[in-house]
Each structure stands twice: as structure tokens, then as C-alpha cells.
Amino acid sequence: MANITKRDDTYRITVFLGNDNSGKQIRKYITYTPDKSLTPKQIEKEVQRQAVLFEEKCKKGLYLDNNITFLEFTEKWFKDYAEKQLKAKTIRSYRIFSKRVYAAIGHIKLDKLQPHHLVEFYNNLKEGGVREDVKYRGKIDFKELLHKLKITQASLSQKSGISEFSIRSMLKGNNINYDTAKKISESLNLELKNAFVPVENKTLSDDTVHHYHTFISTVLSTAVVWQVILSNPCERVKPPKVAKREAKYLDEENLDKLLEIIENLPEKDEQNKVMIRVLLFTGLRKGELCGLKYEDIDFNDRIISIKRNLLYLPEKGVFEDTPKTETSIRDIPVSDTIIQLLKHHQISKSQKQIEIGDKWHDTDYIFTSWNGLPLHPDTISSWFRKLVKKYDLPNISIHSLRHTAATMLIMNGVPLKVVSSLFGHVNEITTGRIYSHVLKSVNKMTVAIMENVMSGKKKKEKEKHS
Question: 62, 122, 290, 359: most buried, per Cβ within 10 A?
Fold first, then answer.
């Protein structure tokens, strides 16, 4: 119930909205001045009506004033904007960022937030020991423990709320995050410090600090558009400069080596072999590759249509999303080699489906788990990482195959506009920025070609006049 206080000829209407993170009561208030032509009874009735309307607005989050804190506004921004406009992975990243941001500036009123508050926060982020994403590694033999307790990976997954993929990763000795380690420990009635050991805790990178700046700036830009504040203080702050990193790719020699390795892999790696080749020949992102369905392949005209992205989040599992940007929705012409690979893979899948029988799930995805369910996008990444290490290839990731494909096209004279379209970039500028190092090499080659052309013309002129 709103509180009404009379002050001379005005009324102060106050609404209480619970407590903030520090336990302080959250209050919203307005001052109402009644029309002088109203009678005392009419004024009393109108004040009550204004109080009910104001309270309703506050509870629905429709009332914003200069007293709103960064935390209060950001929570409204998540609800009214982010959850409707942004992708799930972006929202999750911003939610992770918000914890530290709220602790630092969440209590500051939006119109009081100044550049120096942000500078102090960014400087604090660069200090050692501030990371929340410390990784943990098991210090006991979990395989032996699960065997002793007669607990399966599936039952541990169900009890802890952690995916089987993460549990398998932990059992292999890979690093896991704090939340995962904590939930597994609690599920097995173990203390975290007795079950896991933290891996080295480094400072946050300039790139990560820049992501924090982007998050805060995005929120405050919306506050400007919604006319809660006049300007965005982030525009008056210089975040840490992020060092430009060149895209990693395979040169021709190592590309040939990879293709030879793939060719000689055993039959059990058949699906992975096809996936690597498709990535190299199309430049797809791994999420786009995992999201491919047979309906996306025009086997006659040899075209692959990119319509969806397959992603993973701990709270959602593997799920479908729209491609990264609008330009990522595209048609890619492919060679007959790729079409034949996909046809052969389809036959192999049909044979596996017969062998598995009732356990098979018909999802229509081209690349799937052993039982036909959607493939976790990190599965191919993990497999490829081991392949690179085993055969002493350059230290590249699965995404480097996309960079390799683009580099080979640019080096062989394919126009930047065409590469941009094939790879789903927003524009040619984006493509040029990513592959600026390649363009420099191409420019040097162009100079040599021009020299040869002009030298040839000069030689012909001499022969003509001799």
C-alpha cells in the first residue's frame, strides 16, 4: 500500500519495493499537486487514485526516475530489452558480468554515475586475484570413487544438475569452473577443497575488461534512449586498448598435411572426417555445421543453406538458435566432392540407425551423437584439439579452419566482397579487418604481378622497334 503524506497544498506519494542487495529499503515517490478547482472530497478521492496508479506503475517497473540505481535499471533492462532482443549466449555472458558490476557500481544512482567510477572499476578488474572464473581440477580419482559408490555418470548428472558432457570432461582430468566443481562436490558429500584444487589465478585480460565496458555501455545507451539520463558516461571513458590478434590459419603445407591425416583416419572417425572437410571447403562456423539438416542441402544444385546455429549453455543444454547475424543466413555453393561426402555420410548414418534400432532418435541433423540426438558443438572441438596435438600440427582451434578457408580464397584472388558473402560477414570491412594480414601479402604479390606485366609490355615495345 502506498504511503501518502500531505505537505501544504501538495501530496507526497511513496511506494516501498522491498530491499536492495545491502538490505536498504527501496522507495519510489512522486509529488502530486491537485487542481485548485477540486473540492476537499474530490481531492481526497483523486489523491487515492493517483497513489494506486503510481504503485501499479512501480510494481510493473513502468516508472523510472533519476533516483533509479544502476542495478535497478539494469535488471529492468534485462527483463524488458535483453531477454527479447539479445541471443541467449550474450545474455548469459552479461549476467556473469553483472555480478561484479553490481558489486562495484550497482548502488550508484544512474544520473550520478560518472566516468571516474568506471575508471576505478576497470582498474580494479586489472588487479590480481579478481577473477571469478578460476578453473578447478580434480585432486582425487573420481572414476574410482564413482565405481566404489556405484554411481553412474548419468545419475551424478541428474543429481548435480551438471551435464554428462561436463562430468566426462572432469573425469578426463580437464579443468572445470567453480560452480561445476561445487555442485559435483556437494552431490558426492565432499568438501570442495578436498575434492578439487584451483588452477593458477591470473589477472583479467584487456579483452575481458573491454567486454565489461561494452556491457555497461550497452545498458547506459538504452538509458539514454529511454530518457532516464541525458548522456552515456562510457562515451567519456577510454577502456583498455585490446591488442589486435591475427587470425590463425594453416598454410598450404600444413593444410596438405591435415588433409592427408584425415584421409588415413580409421572408420570410427568417419563423421569427424566429413565434418573437418566440410569446414575447410565451406568456412562454416562449428555451430552452423552442427545445426545443418538434410533439408538444408540441395544435392542437385550443390548448395548448402545456413538457417540455424546449434549452441550449448549449461542451463539449457544443446539448443537451436538463429545464425549469429542476419548476413549469416546464406546459401553456399559447394563442390561435387562435398556433395558426395554428404551422400556417403547419409548412407553410413542409415546403417548405424539400423544397428542401434529403438535407441535411435530421428532429428534430421546431418551430424549427430551416437544415438541421433543433436551433437554438442564442443565435441568436434575437443576431438580436433587432440588430433592437432597427436600429429604435431600448428596450435590451432577448430575455428581456425574457417580462417584457413577464407585465407586460401583471398590468396587465390577471390574478391573480398565474395568472401564476405560466403562467410556471412556483416560487410567487406569486417572481412578486411579480420584478414588484413592476408591482404598485405596479396598486395605484395600484386606489386610483383604488376612488375611482371609492365616488364613484359616494355620488352614487347623494344622488340617492336628493334
Answer: 290
Task: Report d(CA 294, CA 91) in Å as an integer.
Answer: 30
**Placement of cell 550474450 in the chain:** 90
SS3 sequence, the chain? CCEEEEECCEEEEEEEEEECCCCCEEEEEEEECCCCCCCHHHHHHHHHHHHHHHHHHHHCCCCCCCCCEHHHHHHHHHHHHHHHHCCHHHHHHHHHHHHHHHHHHCCCEHHHCCHHHHHHHHHHHCCCCCCCCCCEEECCCHHHHHHHHCCCHHHHHHHHCCCHHHHHHHHCCCCECHHHHHHHHHHCCCCHHHHEEECCCCCCCHHHHHHHHHHHHHHHHHHHHCCCCCCCHHHHCCCCCCCCCCCCCCCHHHHHHHHHHHHCCCHHHHHHHHHHHHHHHHCCCHHHHHCCEHHHEECCCCEEEECCEEEEECCCEEEEECCCCHHHCEEEECCHHHHHHHHHHHHHHHHHHHHHHHHCCCCCECCECCCCCECCHHHHHHHHHHHHHHCCCCCCCCCHHHHHHHHHHHHCCCCHHHHHHHHCCCCHHHHHHHCHHHHHHHHHHHHHHHHHHHHHHHHHHHHHHC
- C-alpha cell at position 341: 561426402
* Residue 334 grid coordinates: 559447394
Q: pLDDT at position 56, please?
A: 84
CA Rg, the chain, in Å? 30
Residue 41 contacts residue 52 (beta carbons within 8 Å):
no
For the chain, which ranges sit under pLDDT 70? 20-22, 61-63, 66, 128-133, 200-202, 442-466
Handedness of CA 33, 36, 40, 44 (dihedral sign): negative
Q: With contact defined as beta carbons under 8 Å apart, do 278 and 338 qualify?
A: yes
Sequence-distant (≥ 6) Cβ neighbours of residue 340 within 8 angstroms? none
Handedness of CA 258, 262, 264, 269 (dihedral sign): positive
Amino acid identity of residue 262, one-letter, is I
* Cell numbers describing residue 439: 591482404
Residue 349: CB atoms within 10 Å? 19
CB within 8 A of 94, min separation 6: which ones?
A: 78, 82, 86, 215, 218
Cα angle, residue 412 at apex, residues 408 and 416 outer, rounded to 5°: 80
Q: Summarize pLDDT for 316-344 with one digit per residue, the tens.
A: 889 999 998 899 999 999 999 999 999 99
pLDDT in tens, 198-239: 886 667 888 999 999 999 999 999 999 888 888 999 999 988
Cell of 122: 576497470
- What pTM was estimated for this model as a whole? 0.71
